[in-house]
Amino acid sequence: MNAKILVLLLVTCALGGCGAAFELELPARFVTLDAKAQKLAGYAKRATTADGVVVAVRVIDNTSEGDLVFWQEAVTIEMRDRRGYALLDDAELRVASGQTGRLLRFGHDEEGEAYRYWIGLLVDERRIFLVEAGGAEKVFEPVEGDVEKAVRGLRIR
Amino acid sequence: MRLRGPGWLAAILWCAGCGAGGAPSAVSRDATPVSYAAAPGATYGGEDYRSDYESPPMAAPSEAPGTDYVGTPQAAPTGSPTPSPQSTPAPDAGPMLVYTAHLAMSVYRVKEVREGVIAAIRELGGVLTLETATQVTVRVPAARFQEALERIEELGEVVNRNVHAQDVGEEFRDIGIRIETLEAMRRRVERLLDQAPNVQAALEVERHLERITVELERLKGRRRFLSDQVAMSTITVTFQERQVEDIARGIFKLPFDWIQQIGLTNLMRLR
To answer: What is the value of ipTM here, to two decimals?
Structure first.
């Protein structure tokens, strides 16, 4: 009996992905990209639309034990002061699993084209969750609401 | 007596000739109602005085009665010391010095130092004439020129200092003589105008009078300008940010690789 339960649990975990540190429900029109390839690029998950709106999640070990304020500042300085992105908005991010972080919305112009780039930042004692979303403004804006809903729907385990 | 015909025209020609050339006998150099001041102890030795690090001599105009100098209003702030020329009237042959200084300063916070320079100059009764992000030009009463330089130099490291004194005494005196001559001529021509025998002659005299008046105004304007230049010294300060380590140029980076990897470039480079 116990063996049967154990096997059932293993099968459930394998199918349901109980090893993942988070769960992100993607909006319509997004497809998830190959996990192994994404892992090599530093992403725990990455998905894209056909016209180039990309959503990705990074999970980083918080070995330095930086808190949310530290990482928010580090990310803002990197993006705004070093990369030349404009910080359009900085708001609280509360995700479906209850954690709170910050949602930083940046804008960036490149060769006359406007781009949007969001970073959702969630920090606990062990990990940093970084939800990135971006794309050319003209294709990002139509799915902006869906992307935000997905980001806020993140479940951290 | 009224002049008629050729005699009258000859009078005009005689007048016209009066102003040409050097000083007429009617106006002596000694009678020129212009005085000026030279600094005691001035090390002036020629037309120009240049110094890189020596204190320049001080000179300020001392307008004598009879000159038409209109000093630039330099109301000192209440409670601040009033500029007072430290010089005494000098004989005619003395110099009238126009001081200009150019300072290049290396400073840490350009904006703060720039504002400090302006504040110091205003305290000394000076005025700001130009301000850009990296340069200010100010004018201070000549008597406070040295003090102004010292105040400015306290605000940052002076990497280049150039003080220039130009003697405009000769030009000033020459202008005074020419003004005297032209005024005398104008008085004579005005008398001739009263005696003009007909309209045509009167018009001719008036044309001549107008030329004299225009030249007189030009000379008086130049004299006012020179007086102002002597009374107020000009200091130009250029600022350059002190070169420090390359901290702001990208040396500092947090040692977290993932921070360098965020951004649209990586996000949109799909695999």
So the answer is: 0.83
